[in-house]
Design a protein that fits this description.
Blueprint lengths: L17 H13 L4 H15 L17
């Protein structure tokens, strides 16, 4: 029995403490986004702030484990 898996999508799990989760949910609802939309939006914003997605990085950012 071989199952075909769609490898174009990756599922990630994020765990927050209750207080942080409540704040995340409050902001997500205010922005009227689904949970997955909000997570993608948040990750992209963070990567932009770290200049990972920027064409002109202002500082070197290493995502490798040291």
């Amino acid at each position: 029995m071989s199952e075909e898996v769609d490898k174009s999508f990756i599922r990630r799990t994020v765990v927050f403490n209750k207080k942080v989760d409540e704040e995340v949910e409050r902001v997500r609802r205010r922005l009227e986004m689904s949970k997955s939309e909000f997570i993608r939006y948040s990750v992209l914003r963070m990567l932009e702030e770290l200049n990972v997605l920027s064409a002109k990085p202002t500082k070197k950012v290493s995502l490798k484990e040291e």
